[in-house]
Every structure is written in structure tokens, then in C-alpha cells.
Amino acid sequence: MEDLICLDTDIIIDHLKGKGPGVEIFERIIKKGNPLTTQITRFELLCGAIDNRENKIIEDCLFGFRVLSFDKDSSLIAAGLYRELKKKGQFIGIRDIMIGGIALANNLKLATKNISEFRRIKGLRIIEFS
Fold it and tell me: What are the residue ranges of helices labelled H in the chain?
């Protein structure tokens, strides 16, 4: 069985802008027919929209995606990550912790350009690309 890959916000932003290393991985995932992302990523994308037209572009982009929620399992994992990273002095953004929790809870790889932050999450499998 092939590993499922969750797309992080920065990969989708590259696609929306039509430039950057995320464009290729976005297209590759779409061609496989199993696009995944999180409600946290949807939130981040919509926060960056300046008007309803851009909201629609984002929602159209996510059409057909399985958008994973921050559920009980994800929240328990993310809370553990939060405590562990804080204790080690390696804290990352709370939304990234939540995305990492969702990916771990669902046994997903994460496609992101934000390698330096997500690498701090123990057990998270990250797709690295150039």
C-alpha cells in the first residue's frame, strides 16, 4: 500500500502562485488522485485571502481534497508534541504542531517546505524535495 501524503500550506500556496518547488509535488499528488490536507491548512490559506474572490479560488483549489480535522486523536498527539518541544526548548508554531498531530494520528507523510520546524516532531515522516 502506498503512503498517503498530506500537503502543508506552503505547498498549496506554491500551487496557487504557480511557482516554487511545491508546484511539482502538488501536481504529482493530484495526479495520484488522493489529495489530503488539514483544516488547519484550510484556515491558514483563508486567512491569507484578501476578499471573497480569493476565498473562492482557495475553496476551488481544495475541491476533491480529503480535508482532515483536528480530532480527539490529533489533539492528544499534538498536546504531547507541544509539551515535548517546549521542554526541549525546540518550540515551533502551534498550528504546525496541530498539523503534525493530524499527520501522525493518520499515519501520513507530510509534504512541506518548512523542513526545519517539522523535523523537530519525532516520528513525523517528511517528504523532502529540492
Answer: 9-17, 22-32, 39-48, 52-62, 72-88, 94-105, 115-118
- State the total domains in the chain: 1
Positive or negative, the CA dihedral 85, 86, 92, 94 is: positive
**Structural domain containing residue 115:** 5-68+108-127
pLDDT digits (tens, 9 = 90+) for 76-117: 999 999 999 999 999 999 999 999 999 999 999 999 999 999
What's the pLDDT tens digit per position in 3-40?
899 999 999 999 999 999 999 999 999 998 889 999 99
Residue 25 CB contacts under 8 Å (≥ 6 apart), including other chains: 7, 11, 111, 127, 129
CATH of the domain at 24: 3.40.50.1010
Under a CB-based contact definition with an 8 Å cutoff, are residues 24 and 129 in contact?
yes
